[in-house]
Each structure stands twice: as structure tokens, then as C-alpha cells.
Amino acid sequence: MAEEDKVKAAKKKAAKAKAAPKKKAANKTAAKKPAAKKTSAKKPAAKKGVSGYGGGSVDVVMSVDQVAKEAASIAANAPTVSELDGMVNGDAFLTIDALRAGYGKMEILHEFTLRVGRGQSLCLIGPNGAGKSTVLHSIFGFTNIFSGSIKIGDQDVTALSPSQKLAEAGIAYILQDKSVFPQMTVEENLLMGGFLKNRPADAKAAAEEVFDKYSRLAERRDKPAGVLSGGERRLLEISRALVMQPQVLLVDEPSIGLEPRFIDMVFEILDDLQRKDGKTIVMVEQNAKKGLAFADLGYVLVSGETAIAGTGDDLLQNPDVGRLFLGG
């Protein structure tokens, strides 16, 4: 028995010796913990500059689903057709009545109505999937129209193709970023905008008018478009649409992908086209504050319908619009 006790004691001693390093390692790890706490304590400071749509604090950030849900409840007091008519300067120039439109068999716009006067500008805002770009696509002929109508003045353009709308009705669509041909020269890009003109000489003459208007493009007419800055590329995209001398400009996200210094330049160009050249502008803009500050009118879209409408300034002051789309 004594021998057995000795063996047991030896085993116990060996087990203790084996466990000792682990304890040390555990203490070592534990010693590091305060440093980790120090790092996490700095995290809140990083939230300081977070904002939505360029304004407000992180306290007002809402999920997309929450924005859509609250906006839908506001839509119960949607503007009437007569109220939309009352916002127009003079007679409506671009008119949409009870439009049902979408892609394939899917309906995105439900009995959608819109009014814009000649030389006025309208900015469409709203949550993702509300149908903002679908409005532009429908005006230009990129969607299936199930019912309703679209008119420019007295001309019904609902069933016209995109090329007919550009050539015959004076409607131009300015795509989002990256629609220039980078290997082609600035002049060649402009001439592409006049591909529907009957004579090449007419397109050339219209391109020269653009060069007269925008010297920064004239100075680069023989350079590949790929060397232009972001702001200059957007100017080229807008100018290419002008070659067909349209009356209505559909502008999709003019500020997307641009540095802040170029965003102001683009909006100044659009303002010049509206105020001096009398263009009617319908815009979708993700920077809601910038878009509403620019536009005469603003519509808030929710689930393919207009939930709120008013002047751009009125929507900027609207507490619901501010809370849901302007960051507070």
C-alpha cells in the first residue's frame, strides 16, 4: 500500500507541474485585456462625422425598411391632381396622367400623376425601390405602359419609341455616370449625340454651339474623353444630350460618383440650362438636399405613388421629409 501511495503522489505532482504553465499563460492573456478595452473606448469618436444625405447626426439614421414604412403612412394624405396643377407656373408642359407602368409584367408605378410647367424643374426623391427612376424610364420609353398617358404640350408621346421621343418630342435622357466613350475624342462623343439628325452637317453645327457655350470642352475637343475629370465627363454627358436641342431633360443622379467640388459645377450647369435656355428638367437625385435646393418642385415617391409634393423649398422645411430623407 505504501508503494501505491507513492505512485499516486508522484502522479499528482506531475499533474500539478503540467497545469502550472497553463495558469501562467492564462495570466499572460488576462494581462493583455485592459489594452483591448482601451481600443474599444475610442470607437464612439469615429461616429462623430456620420450623417445621412449630408446632414444630421448618427442619432437620426434609420433603416431603409423603417423609412419606407413611415413614408407609406404619410402617403395617406397624398396630393390631389388639382393640387399638383396649382404648383405649375402657367400651363403644364410635361403631363403624366394615371400612369401604370413597369418592367415585363411587374407594375412599379400605380396611377402616377405628374405636372411640370415649361422651364420648370422637378426633383423626385424617396426610398429605394419607390419608382423614381421608373418615372424617367417611362417618360423616355424604357418601360411597359399598362395604362395612362404622357404628354409634352398637346402631343401624346406615350407610345413613342425612345428615338422618336428624342427626335420628334424633344425629350433627352441624361444617364448616370460612365456613359461617355473613353477612347473617342470629346468631339466624337458630342457627335454621337446627334446621330438622329438627318444630316451630319447639322450634328456638327450643333456640336459647335456646345463648344461655344462650354470653353472647357472646346479646349479638349481632340482629347480622348477618358482623360477628362469627373466633372468634365458629366459636362460632356449633359452636352451630348444638348446636340439634339431638346426641350425636356431627364437627369438621372447628376451628382453620383462626383467629388463635392464638381457637384456644385454640375448643378450650376443645369441651373443655366433651365434659367437661360428654358429647359424643363425632371431629375432623380440621391443627394436629396441638393436636389430640392435646386428644383422648383419636389415629389416624394413611395411604392410607385406620390406621397408628398410641394415646392423644393417647402419640402426642405417639411419635418417629415427632413426626418426621413434629409438626415434630420
Describe the 3D structure.
The structure is a single chain. With 328 residues, the chain is an alpha/beta fold. 45% of the residues lie in helices and 20% in strands. The protein is built from 14 helices and ten strands. The chain has helices spanning 2-40, 43-46, 64-74, 81-86, 132-140, 162-167, 186-192, 200-213, 215-218, 230-242, 260-275, 288-294, 312-317, 319-325, and strands at residues 92-103, 106-117, 121-125, 144-152, 155-156, 171-174, 248-252, 280-284, 297-302, 305-311. The strands form two sheets. The protein has a six-stranded mixed β-sheet with strand order 6-7-8-3-9-10, with helices on both faces. A four-stranded antiparallel β-sheet has the order 2-1-4-5. Helix 11 (260-275) links the parallel strand 7 (248-252) and strand 8 (280-284). Helix 7 (186-192) packs parallel to helix 10 (230-242) and helix 10 (230-242) runs parallel beside helix 11 (260-275). The protein is globular. 35% of the residues are buried.
Present the secondary structure layout.
Elements: H1 2-40, H2 43-46, H3 64-74, H4 81-86, E1 92-103, E2 106-117, E3 121-125, H5 132-140, E4 144-152, E5 155-156, H6 162-167, E6 171-174, H7 186-192, H8 200-213, H9 215-218, H10 230-242, E7 248-252, H11 260-275, E8 280-284, H12 288-294, E9 297-302, E10 305-311, H13 312-317, H14 319-325
Parallel strand pairs: 3-8, 3-9, 6-7, 7-8
Antiparallel strand pairs: 1-2, 1-4, 4-5, 9-10
Helix pairs in contact: 7-10, 10-11
In short:
The N and C termini lie far apart (83 Å). With 328 residues, the protein is α/β, with parallel strands linked by helices.
